[in-house]
Amino acid sequence: MTTAVLEPRAGRRCHTLLNSLHATHFFSPELAEELAALGVTHPRAVNFAVRAAALGPVGPGTVTATFYNYKYELVARHVPAVWRTASPADVLAARARAVDASMRRLLGADAVASAEMAEAAGLALRATEACSRSGRPLYAAHADLPVPEEPHLAYWHAATLLREHRGDGHLATLIAAGLDGLEAVVTHTATGKGMTPKWVLATRGWSREDWDAAVLRLRERGLLDESGELTAAGTELRTEIEAETDRLDRAPYAHLGLAGVARLTELAREFAAAALAAGAFPADLVGKG
Questions:
Q1: Which residues of 37-47 are buried (b: 16+ CB within 10 A; e: fewer)?
Q2: Which of 249, 248, 253, 265 is nearest to 1 (CA)?
Q3: DSSP code, position 100
């Protein structure tokens, strides 16, 4: 199957829906409960632990580098201390239990056990066959984990692989664009599709002064106007970043093929919509304000 049969943004649309379901676990009460049982109770420590656990007991430098948009000082307050409380293996096991419980709650037992879930898992796993480990640390670490036997967990695992594969490539485009971690977030928020400043400041370790300084730097580059909106140059840069990210992430969806991508997108849309309707995300998570 050649890449020519795929519409340029087909992979992006499919990924967005897959990632929507993957991301639900970060906000699930089940994850907080499972990590608390291990002794990890601070929300930031939970976040760093569950996403970085596949890398092993790494330090704050590795987490900051691979996560990109968190302030190093925040990461260093929790990593590597979190590994003295819970090992990466225990965290991964707790995460799996939390994902199992939260998917059952959000989607319902029938959807979890459905033929459609098994089909979606098969399609998503097939797409991951064309992912590349080279230069993609978070993807590569998760690719070394075993594929769960249960279809809903296999689907979530595949969504995780595809998320981290695209994310690792996305960081390369941000670096090439000359955007540091906070500048990347500020410009994404300015598109209206990123997290609100409230959530960024509450979860990424940046202060309002840090945010304002990033805005000033972006204004000086001509990427934001005086009201904080993207200029024409800023919009063009964000468009270029997403297009280059698409290019770097083309292989999995080209491998899956036109019909496979269309079907996986259809199934992923149903699961993501169900999770959203069940209240998987905070109402004020996304937007400019």
A1: ebebeeebbbb
A2: 253
A3: H
Neighbouring residues of 272: CB distance < 8 A, sequence distance ≥ 6: 17, 18, 20, 21
Phi, psi of 67 (to 5 degrees): -85, -30
Q: Is this prediction's pTM over 0.90?
A: yes
Structure tokens at 246: 């698409």
Residue 11's SS3 state is helix
Exposure string (b/e) for 95-117, b if CB count within 10 Å is 16 or more?
bbebbbbbbebbbeeebbebebb
What's the half-sphere exposure (Cβ side, CA atoms, 13 Å) at 224? Answer: 23
pLDDT at 5 over 80: no
| Paired residues of 195 in beta bridges | 286
In this prediction, residues 82-97 reach a mean pLDDT of 98
Q: What span, in angstroms and rounded, lies between the C-alpha atoms of 113 and 128?
A: 22
